[in-house]
Amino acid sequence: MKKNKQFVVIGIGRFGHSVATSLYKLGYEVLVIDNSEKEIQDIANQVTHAVQLDARDEEALKRLGIRNFDVAIVAIGDDIQSNILVSVMLKELGVQKVVAKAKDALHGRVLEKIGVDRVIYPERDMGIRVAHNLTSVNDLLDYIELSPDYSIVEVFAPQEFVDNTIGKLNLRAKYRVSVIAIKSAEEINAAPGADALIKQGDILVVIGSNQAISNLPK
Q1: Can you name the residues that pair with 188 across neighbouring β-strands?
Q2: SS3 207
Q3: What b/e readout covers 32-53, taking b as 16+ CB neighbours within 10 angstroms?
Q4: I want to staple 107 with a disulfide (CB 3.0 to 4.6 A). Which of 9, 19, 102, 178 is the partner?
């Protein structure tokens, strides 16, 4: 069953392709736009609609009813001028929320100035995640930055947590973190209660300040 929110993804490079197909798999209506016939053919069966056109053509966007989409993702990569121009047009055409990919900080500041609702830095953000994965003193498996000070991380359960319940460990009071999921080989326990038992080999999904997370047992 398709969900109500509609997305349009403009520019089908690696980032745009990943966003579009992921949204479609989650059950959303997804339109993709790219000026490459090959890219459109390759993705056509993995999204709701795929259209080949030049996204800088304002009249063509109007004919597609672009203003009726809830969220537009401008994933145009190397052509910064086109990225900015399309973002401006989408705002002027009345798209409710415009998200745009930025190549660097200067590009991002320009996008913010023209009113883009959210700027994404895929290369920078992936670099941050890789750096955390390589240098963390915890057994860090994945990392998502919520703000400069707070993150969500996946870590292997520290040995001293094993065979204890979340309630007994009292993690909020002792470490100022919350476990929002426990992943085992058999299942994922989302929003585990105080009686949830942590077993050997479990992966904990933890939210907290970066300082608090760094203080977790090794």
Answers
A1: 183
A2: strand
A3: bbbbeeebbeebeeebbebeee
A4: 102
Query: What H or E segment, with its residue span, contains residue 81?
Result: helix 80-92
- Rounded alpha-carbon distances, angstroms, from residue 113 to 72, 106, 109, 193: 17, 11, 6, 44
> What pLDDT, on the 0 to 100 scale, is given for residue 139?
54
Which pLDDT band holds residue 138 (cuts at 50, 70, 90)?
A: low
Residues 6+ apart with CB under 8 A from 115: 91, 98
Residue 150 or residue 145, greater confidence: 150
Contact present, 100 and 83 (Cβ < 8 Å): yes
Q: Locate tokens 């830095």: which residue?
A: 121
Q: How confident is the model at residue 130 (pLDDT cuts 50, 70, 90)?
A: low
- The phi and psi torsions of 191 (rounded to 5 degrees) equal 50, 60
CA–CA separation, 35 vs 47, rounded Å?
A: 16
Q: Is the dihedral of CA 139, 26, 87, 146 positive or negative?
A: negative
Query: Across-strand partners of 31?
Result: 8, 49
Question: pLDDT-based confidence at 65, cuts 50/70/90?
Answer: very high
H helices, E strands: number in the chain: 9, 13
